[in-house]
Amino acid sequence: MSFPDGILADHQIEAAIAEGxxxxxxxxxxxxxxxxxxxxxxxxxxxxxxxxxxxxGRTVEECLTDDIVMHTVxxxxxxxxxxxxxxxxxxxxxxxxxxxxxxxxxxxxSTGRIDVFxxxxxxxxxxxxxxxxxxxxxxxxxxxxxxxSVLARPGDRLLQMRFxxxxxxxxxxxxxxxxxxxxxxxxxxxxxRRHARVLDLSKVGGxxxxxxxxxxxxRNGRLILDPDEFYILASKExxxxxxxxxxxxxxxxxxxxxxxxxxxxxxxxxxxCDGVSGRAVxxxxxxxxxxxxxxxxxxxxxxxxxxxxLPRAPYGTEGSNYQGQGLKxxxxxx
Length: 334
Prior knowledge:
- It is built from four helices and 26 strands.
- By secondary structure, the chain is mainly β.
- The protein folds into two domains: about 160 residues, Distorted Sandwich (Deoxyuridine 5'-Triphosphate Nucleotidohydrolase, Chain A), CATH 2.70.40.10; about 140 residues, Deoxyuridine 5'-Triphosphate Nucleotidohydrolase, Chain A (Distorted Sandwich), CATH 2.70.40.
- The strands form five sheets. Strands 15, 16, 18, 20, 21, 22, 23, 24 and 26 form a nine-stranded antiparallel sheet that branches. Strands 1, 3, 4, 9, 11 and 14 form a six-stranded antiparallel sheet that branches. Strands 2, 5, 6, 8, 10 and 12 form a six-stranded antiparallel sheet that branches.
- The longest helix is centred in the first third of the chain and has 9 residues.
- It is globular, with a radius of gyration of 19 Å.
- It starts with 5 loop residues before the first strand and ends in a 28-residue tail after the last strand.
């Protein structure tokens, strides 16, 4: 099957599913297809690895030798994925990409905001998070909780996949900066608490904020990032994604080196539209040395590209957790 150039919309993804471009041994779940992406679901087991890897021309199964796999975790009834460990989870979805269609994966917003580092791996592919045209095979998620140990089950959705027909053709970009003046009750953000209790991925609104987060307050428009601490902050600018565009967050200066400003990077068409303005929420991690962030400091860039077609249900019309967001934690907290 073929599509006009651009990012595939929800109804095009559904057509692709009907044609077998995306398939699964289990029925697809409600709202699994988003305005410009599809959520990918964890399977029934996880391999605890010594270290991350890329297949580099081999199948993933060929790489899973006793030298790299420490043990296998059964997720069927739920299992805890421990902080600081690396796991590989076979996903429930498979793809068969036709000529001219590629795919890109990224952590879902809720995944990035709980500091779970997730990347997509595929047979024979020598990079993370990208699937070339013509690929026909299984998909795997590398999962590494950084701050909170998480309780995972089959069907949990940590990754989302976006399909592109034709070449990557950005139309424009928007630089954005950090907001370090009072937003909500004097807050500018949150810092993750170390050694918190296990976080249940399936419990939406089932966790107390103060069990997992410390509030961060405004201090003269500055914030000193502590090394290896995780923060939730917000952009100074409000973000709007027109319904005929999709956007992805990219770093302005990859060589900055002292902090990482985001994990989850996709913005769907319709975000911030119809008068419901929203900021970009940033997952920020300090690196090797303390680093001063200042209000208005540039931290990222939104790169826009055209949709292949208008989505049937733009962001905010069906089950959207972050439309109109300000400083907002993941959906797991209430």
